[in-house]
């Protein structure tokens, strides 16, 4: 059966103006991302990975080119429809967790389930990342890894089609990073959510179905893993 | 060369220019109110004392029956009397061809020859009267009727019309505040003061060679009381009505009251404004330093000392205060000047020069600056305690907890958003508390300005709807027999007439005494009642005497105490009456006995000094016309006219005052609400960005952010009502007027206006914050987590 692409990017260009300097973050990227696959984006800083992720997630718009989510042209979306798109279809994970400090773990998840269409319950979402027992803790009472797992629960509670992770383990030590990666892997495996992970750590690529390499605003290489390994097997 | 740190100060300020502006405006309001209210007080006080000195305002005043003027010479020997002057002082009706309302005036004579007199007249225009028919018109009345020199004035003396010519317009220290009898407020349209040469006035009134009033100054160091007792004794044979010191002189008494009120306002309002601006400066500086903690760390890493960094933030704070101070000084000087003009117009001081003591702006600036510097130091202290490397990292997340709020709520029923609001408010209870106080104070300021109107309206209602039920009050030059009542009753259109007898008395209790009148009232009165503060009628007892609470307080007498009543006319008997009741009324310091006892006390038949009328409004003009031409009628007071006049003067004055206050209240509310919102916004930029990323729309994010402000505002509104009521209570109690007992009345209208001002400032802040939410860049907000 042919895999169905959920994201398709064609000749994607993104130019930033930083003061008077023009920075070309993407120089014409062609890429398809498929349903329920686990993709890792690798590449040096400034190679365009985050820019691509932000565009796919509707946080940013390209300067030129085409990008579609299923049948929807993201280029044609307004601020409001982009917000709805994020609300219903994508989940984000950032290096900095970004939990609301005044809400407990469960309440942080509830923040999303309150506005999503067919969400899980906050407890269900927390159970996926094995955080349900700490649901009443505030962010300040959780370790970094635990906070990141709550962030994952919050991202997946809406049952998104894609989970976009920008350096999810960047701020964590190896052991904790491994736990977070297991949680992300579980989401991909159990919920069939397409997962895109940006990382500097090439070892993580071994967990993925495909590893896409970035350099200078372009896709330089795509590798397909025929034998995915589990996070426990990763050598850091 | 400008150091880069100085450049940073200016650019930082530019970056938060809206916040700087709102805080500067609150600072400006504080300084402006401080300057304008104190300088108005200073100016009034100075104008009063300068005018009193220059015009040689008398220290003691005596009234008696028309008596040969030789009595003046006899008093000169009293030790302590410096200068003494006799004069005629009487009331007469005026006739204007096109005005039907009753208008009356007080006519006062001044020496024919002497150049230097007491209570010297100040000429506004024209010249002093010289000829027989010439008259000088008091400025207030001249203004109300647009009278100028050479205009004609018709006076009704003993029922006969006399034509006078106006020689000039002027004023005297005795009539800065012109009040007629017991009327609670000035009524310049219906009542004026007029001066004529002694020979002219005595000739016109047929009292040649007579005087009925003495004014005198006492030597320095002499207590007027000593002189007064001797004078009273000497004037008994002239039917003396009792002498009184300047302190009891009507104009002086009311004017001093008014100036005293200004002083209370000058203390109360700037204190509030400067505290709020201190609080705002404190939070804005605190926030700026905590936002810039990594910058501070970098500066320290580069080798800048704590002192240098502190001075840098002092410069920032100083600049905000300077902007506020410049606006505040300009606005304060302008406002003070305007208020002086307004007061000049209200009181007709000959010279009311706006004076601004430099200490005022300086103290305003120092207070604001002090607050800003303390705020800065407090915030910097926590940053300085950290090692630079640590300070460069973002601060650890604040420790939230489920506060008291939630213990009483059914958790599952509240949305996460609501929980965020409560927890954020509970996280910084001190800031939340101060914000609530700040917003409440702005409503409170509004209420403290508008409640005056409510209280005065209540007094008017009580006085004119409940106590004084007549349409007109006719007063006579001397007591009239019962025929006068019958005669007036028979005028077509008079529905009801009720006569009263007032006796001039001096009431003494132990070593306190008061000069006034005792009025005889029936058990049931149709047109004139005594009411207490609950608006219930107070019945005049058959025996003994009833006093206003105010008067009893002044005398130090309690119910049951024996009061010595010295009758100041006729037999001049001295009798003792027991104080049998107190009337807790608003206006005046009255004394009442049962009308049935009067003939016995005075050893005369029933006579009246005033008659109250209820009339058919269709006949009002004719009745007034008829009364004007009745001999011995000294004055007619029309209730309708008095109310109209009140609405045109005092009410307008309070209106302007409230309007200015609402402007300031708006600025305070805006300052507190906007800065709070802005601080919340900057503290949680990344939180808001996160919400946008997980799919919250702009308006949803805004709602979440602003709900916290709305919660603050909603807590503040009732708090503001309570504070406003307290402030009004403070104002009423701080202002001691013996003339009027100001009841503390705050109508829903005043609460509503105060609430509207706060809501308006909330809406304006909302607009400003919404703009920020739309400009929020999600990606960069997340990357730059501080």
How would you characterize the overall build of this protein?
The complex is a heterodimer of chains A (236) and B (786). Chain A is an alpha/beta fold and 236 residues long. Chain A has a domain at 5-96 and 161-233: P-loop containing nucleotide triphosphate hydrolases (Rossmann fold), CATH 3.40.50.300. Chain A has helices spanning 49-56, 79-89, 105-113, 122-128, 144-156, 174-191; strands at residues 5-18, 21-34, 38-42, 64-69, 72-73, 90-94, 162-166, 194-199, 210-215, 218-224. A 6-stranded mixed beta sheet of chain A has the order 6-7-8-3-9-10, with helices on both faces. The model of chain A has no long low-confidence stretch (mean pLDDT 89). Chain B has 4 domains: 1-59 and 246-392, no CATH class; 60-245, no CATH class; 417-468 and 640-786, no CATH class; 494-615, no CATH class. Chain B has a 6-stranded mixed beta barrel with strand order 3-4-9-6-8-7. The longest helix of chain B is centred in the middle third of the chain and has 42 residues, at 250-291. Chain B is elongated, with a radius of gyration of 33 Å. The mean pLDDT of chain B is 85. At the A-B interface, helix 2, strand 6 and helix 3 of A face helix 13, helix 21 and helix 24 of B.
Secondary structure topology:
The complex is a heterodimer of chains A (236) and B (786).
Chain A: E1 5-18, E2 21-34, E3 38-42, H1 49-56, E4 64-69, E5 72-73, H2 79-89, E6 90-94, H3 105-113, H4 122-128, H5 144-156, E7 162-166, H6 174-191, E8 194-199, E9 210-215, E10 218-224
Parallel strand pairs in A: 3-8, 3-9, 6-7, 7-8
Antiparallel strand pairs in A: 1-2, 1-4, 4-5, 9-10
Chain B: H1 4-15, H2 17-54, E1 60-68, H3 71-75, E2 81-87, E3 89-96, E4 99-110, E5 122-126, E6 134-138, H4 139-145, E7 152-157, E8 160-171, E9 191-197, H5 198-204, E10 210-218, H6 224-235, E11 243-245, H7 250-291, H8 293-301, H9 306-347, H10 359-384, H11 388-392, H12 404-407, H13 416-427, H14 429-467, E12 472-481, H15 482-489, E13 494-509, E14 512-521, E15 545-548, H16 549-555, E16 562-567, E17 574-583, E18 591-594, H17 598-602, E19 607-615, H18 620-628, E20 633-638, H19 639-648, H20 650-683, H21 685-693, H22 698-734, H23 748-775, H24 778-783
Parallel strand pairs in B: 4-9, 6-8, 14-18, 15-17
Antiparallel strand pairs in B: 1-10, 1-11, 2-10, 3-4, 3-7, 5-8, 6-9, 7-8, 12-19, 12-20, 13-14, 13-16, 13-19, 15-18, 16-17
């Amino acid at each position: 059966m042919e895999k169905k692409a959920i994201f398709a990017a064609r000749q994607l260009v993104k130019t930033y103006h930083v003061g008077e300097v023009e920075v070309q973050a993407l120089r014409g990227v062609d890429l398809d991302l498929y349903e329920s696959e686990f993709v890792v984006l690798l590449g040096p800083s400034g190679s365009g990975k985050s820019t691509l992720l932000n565009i796919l997630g509707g946080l940013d718009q390209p300067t030129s080119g085409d990008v579609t989510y299923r049948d929807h042209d993201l280029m044609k979306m307004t601020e409001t429809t982009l917000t709805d798109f994020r609300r219903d279809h994508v989940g984000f994970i950032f290096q900095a967790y970004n939990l609301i400090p005044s809400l407990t773990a469960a309440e942080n998840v509830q923040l999303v389930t309150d506005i999503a269409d067919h969400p899980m319950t906050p407890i269900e979402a927390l159970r996926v990342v094995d955080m349900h027992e700490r649901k009443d803790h505030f962010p300040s009472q959780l370790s970094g890894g635990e906070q990141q797992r709550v962030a994952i629960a919050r991202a997946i509670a809406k049952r998104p089609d894609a989970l976009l992770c920008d350096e999810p383990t960047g701020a964590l030590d190896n052991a904790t990073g491994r736990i977070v990666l297991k949680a992300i892997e579980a989401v991909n495996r159990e919920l069939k959510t397409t997962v895109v992970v940006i990382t500097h750590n090439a070892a993580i690529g071994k967990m993925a179905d495909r590893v896409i390499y970035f350099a200078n605003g372009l896709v330089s290489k795509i590798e397909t893993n025929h034998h995915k390994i589990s996070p426990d097997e990763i050598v850091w | 060369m400008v150091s880069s740190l100085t450049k940073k100060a200016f650019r930082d300020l530019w970056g938060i220019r809206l916040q700087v502006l709102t805080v500067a405006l609150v600072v400006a309001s504080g300084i402006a109110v401080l300057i304008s209210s104190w300088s108005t007080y200073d100016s009034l006080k100075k104008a009063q004392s300068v005018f009193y000195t220059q015009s040689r305002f008398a220290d003691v005043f005596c009234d008696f029956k028309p008596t040969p003027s030789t009595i003046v010479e006899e008093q000169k020997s009293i030790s302590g009397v410096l200068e003494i002057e006799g004069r005629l002082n009487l009331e007469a009706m005026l006739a204007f061809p096109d005005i039907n309302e009753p208008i009356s005036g007080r006519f006062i004579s001044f020496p024919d020859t002497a150049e230097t007199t007491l209570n010297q007249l100040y000429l506004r225009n024209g010249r002093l009267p010289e000829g027989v028919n010439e008259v000088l018109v008091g400025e207030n009345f001249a203004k109300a009727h647009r009278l100028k020199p050479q205009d004609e004035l018709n006076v009704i003396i003993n029922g006969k019309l006399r034509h006078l010519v106006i020689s000039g317009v002027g004023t005297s220290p005795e009539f800065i505040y012109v009040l007629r009898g017991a009327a609670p407020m000035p009524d310049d349209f219906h009542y004026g003061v007029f001066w004529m040469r002694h020979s002219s006035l005595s000739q016109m009134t047929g009292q040649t060679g007579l005087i009925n009033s003495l004014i005198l100054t006492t030597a320095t160091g002499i207590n007027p009381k000593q002189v007064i007792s001797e004078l009273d004794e000497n004037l008994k044979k002239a039917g003396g009505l009792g002498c009184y010191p300047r302190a009891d002189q009507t104009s002086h008494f009311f004017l001093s009251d008014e100036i005293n009120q200004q002083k209370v306002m000058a203390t109360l309002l700037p204190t509030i404004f400067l505290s709020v601006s201190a609080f705002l400066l404190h939070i804005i500086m605190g926030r700026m330093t905590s936002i810039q903690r990594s910058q501070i760390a970098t500066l320290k890493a580069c080798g800048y000392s704590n002192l240098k960094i502190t001075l840098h933030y002092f410069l920032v704070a100083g600049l905000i205060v300077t902007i506020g101070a410049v606006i505040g000084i300009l606005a304060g000087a302008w406002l003070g000047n305007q208020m002086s003009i307004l007061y000049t117009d209200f009181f007709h001081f000959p010279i009311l020069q706006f004076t601004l003591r430099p200490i005022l702006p300086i103290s305003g600036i120092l207070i604001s600056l002090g607050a800003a510097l303390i705020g800065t130091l407090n915030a910097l202290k926590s940053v300085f305690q950290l090692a630079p490397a640590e300070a460069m990292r973002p601060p650890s997340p604040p420790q939230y907890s489920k506060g008291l709020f939630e213990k009483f709520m059914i958790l599952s029923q509240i949305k996460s958003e609501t929980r965020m609001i409560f927890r954020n408010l509970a996280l910084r209870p001190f800031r939340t508390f101060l914000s609530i106080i700040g917003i409440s104070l702005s409503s409170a300021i509004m209420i403290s300005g508008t409640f005056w109107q409510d209280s005065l309206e209540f007094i008017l209602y009580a006085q004119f709807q409940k106590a004084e039920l007549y349409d007109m009050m006719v007063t006579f030059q001397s007591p009239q027999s019962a025929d006068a009542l019958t005669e007036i009753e028979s005028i077509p259109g008079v529905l009801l007439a009720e006569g009263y007898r007032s006796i001039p008395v001096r009431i003494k209790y132990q070593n306190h005494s008061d000069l006034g009148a005792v009025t005889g009232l029936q058990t049931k009165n149709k047109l004139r009642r005594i009411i207490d503060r609950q608006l219930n009628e107070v019945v005049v007892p058959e025996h003994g005497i009833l006093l206003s609470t105010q008067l009893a307080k002044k005398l130090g007498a309690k119910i049951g105490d024996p009061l010595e009543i010295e009758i100041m006319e006729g037999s001049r008997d001295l009798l003792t009456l027991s104080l049998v009741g107190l009337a807790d009324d608003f206006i005046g310091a009255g004394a009442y006995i049962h009308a049935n006892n009067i003939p016995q006390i005075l050893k005369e038949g029933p006579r009246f000094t005033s008659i109250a009328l209820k009339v058919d409004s269709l006949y009002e003009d004719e009745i007034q016309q008829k009364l004007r031409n009745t001999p011995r009628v000294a004055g007619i007071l029309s209730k309708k006219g008095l109310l109209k006049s009140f609405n045109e003067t005092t009410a307008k004055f309070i209106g302007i005052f409230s309007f200015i206050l609402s402007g300031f209240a708006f600025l305070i509310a805006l300052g507190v609400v906007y800065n709070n919102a802005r601080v919340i916004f900057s503290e949680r930029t990344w939180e808001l960005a996160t919400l946008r990323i997980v799919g919250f729309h702009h308006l949803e994010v805004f709602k979440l952010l602003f709900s916290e402000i709305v919660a603050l505002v909603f807590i503040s509104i009732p708090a503001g009502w309570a504070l406003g009521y307290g402030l009004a209570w403070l104002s009423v109690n701080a202002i001691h007027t013996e003339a009027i007992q100001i009841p503390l009345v705050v109508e829903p209208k005043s609460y509503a206006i105060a609430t509207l001002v706060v809501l308006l400032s909330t809406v304006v802040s909302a607009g400003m914050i919404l703009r920020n939410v739309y400009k929020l860049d999600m990606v960069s907000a997340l990357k730059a987590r501080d």
